[in-house]
Design the sequence.
């Protein structure tokens, strides 16, 4: 499993594309937080709420770009058959690719901790609510883990990396905000809207982001990850 994981890392960072993707992610977040209108300096108090509201939408673009080549490139170059000859089970290949992609996302998220220290230093009061901030980071990590599983699953459907990116982007967007949008329909205002919204990723991400680690949210995230990894396994089994 580790050789597959290491291969994913080296493949992503073997060209400037990987570095550019991470730099763009950090640059967009930094500009919105500290430079553009309605930045955190306009709030009058120490908060990272704007970052945790923006980050999921940036990850919607970043993670499909990271995962799109996972299996699509293997199918296109016919190296998946070579990979099958190695002493690895199908699940070891899937998990190796999954954790390799997730590690890249973690590397992209790690420098954002600078935002925490920066705001803490600039604050003249008590500073950030560290409990809520840690909870929000945990929520962001689980969100990234779910998006990565979705991206890996979408990459296993095709041998075209661009198609994998587009399908992954649409799937992540629909599962993240689609249920929230459907819950606002007038026909669902009799109480069903809550249950429809609860089926979406957005609901559980914001629940953890408040600093309350609920086992139901953790189970939801893990369930979605497992479902998409099983979908990936099913697609590979057909090949």
Sequence:
């Amino acid at each position: 499993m580790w050789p597959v994981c290491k291969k994913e890392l080296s493949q992503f960072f073997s060209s400037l594309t990987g570095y550019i993707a991470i730099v763009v992610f950090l640059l967009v977040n930094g500009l919105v937080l500290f430079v553009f209108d309605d930045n955190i300096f306009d709030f009058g108090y120490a908060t990272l709420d704007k970052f945790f509201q923006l980050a999921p939408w940036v990850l919607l673009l970043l993670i499909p770009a990271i995962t799109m080549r996972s299996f699509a490139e293997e199918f296109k170059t016919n190296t998946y058959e070579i990979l099958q000859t190695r002493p690895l089970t199908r699940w070891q290949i899937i998990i190796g690719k999954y954790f390799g992609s997730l590690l890249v996302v973690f590397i992209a998220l790690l420098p954002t901790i600078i935002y925490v220290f920066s705001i803490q230093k600039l604050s003249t009061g008590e500073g950030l609510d560290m409990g809520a901030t840690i909870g929000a980071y945990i929520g962001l990590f689980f969100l990234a883990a779910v998006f990565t599983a979705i991206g890996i699953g979408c990459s296993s459907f095709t041998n075209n990396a661009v198609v994998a990116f587009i399908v992954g982007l649409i799937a992540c967007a629909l599962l993240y905000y689609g249920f929230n949008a459907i819950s606002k329909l007038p026909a669902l205002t009799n109480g069903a809207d809550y249950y429809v919204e609860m089926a979406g990723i957005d609901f559980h991400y914001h629940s953890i982001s408040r600093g309350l680690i609920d086992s139901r949210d953790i189970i939801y995230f893990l369930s979605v990850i497992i479902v998409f990894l099983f979908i990936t396994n099913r697609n590979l089994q057909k090949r």
